Amino acid sequence: MYLPQDKQDISRDYLAPTKGVNYELGLKAQTNDERLMAALAWFTADQQSLGTFAGILDGQWYYSGQDVLSRGVDLELNGQLTAATRISANLVSLQLEDDTGASTYPWIPRETLKLAISHDFTALGIEAGAALRWQNKVAKKDDNTGFYTRQNAYGVLDMFARWDMTEHLKLSLNLKNISEEKYLTSLYEVGYYSAARTASLGLDLQF
Q: What is the C-alpha separation between 48 and 46, in angstroms, rounded?
């Protein structure tokens, strides 16, 4: 692993490229009809001098190189549950440590889940589905003020439906953040509050 960095230190010099090694060991399995596949992977990555936000000087952000060891487990499930029902799921459990063995990068979630499922109502010409994403709680300390910003665990649910009205005309409905979950999009550098519940209706005409 060798990646150039475009971040600058407190002296306005560019950080040296980050170096490291990563390993992954995995298992895959699928059903006899090859419609559904599951994968389990164990991974580890040792990154050296990874550019990390260190502060603000004269209105300019600066960074320092930090060694980070990450390791975890990644579980995936993809494919057809039935001829009309499709699923996609991903669960990740992660650990991040600095060169002393202490936990680092607390603004990165250690557990995340993504789940999407859809069903095709063929006789009606309708496809509908839902997608859920979840993460555990995170936090970040402001080095200038000493205050912590904390984000509790949260989940966001989206739904969609599409109706093939004719061979050339399709009507679609998308619902985002149905439970109107309020959360910060990031705790690193700049973060914004999430968008409120939204709905969009589309009409697609194809010739």
A: 7
Q: Rounded distance, CA 124 to CA 26, Å?
A: 41
In 136-195, DSSP assigns E strands to 138-141, 148-151, 154-164, 169-176
At 193, phi and psi to the nearest 5? -70, 150
- d(CA 183, CA 195) in angstroms, rounded, equals 9
pLDDT in tens, the chain (207 residues): 778 888 888 888 888 888 889 999 999 999 988 899 999 999 999 988 888 887 778 878 888 888 899 999 999 999 999 999 999 999 999 999 988 889 999 999 999 999 999 999 998 999 999 999 999 999 988 766 778 889 999 999 999 999 999 889 999 999 999 999 999 888 876 778 888 899 999 999 888
| Residues 91, 95: Cα–Cα separation, whole Å | 14
Q: Say whether 122 sits in a helix, a strand or coil.
A: helix
pTM, rounded to two decimals: 0.83
Q: What kind of fold does domain 2-205 have according to CATH?
A: Maltoporin; Chain A (2.40.170)
Residue boundaries of the structural domains of the chain: 2-205
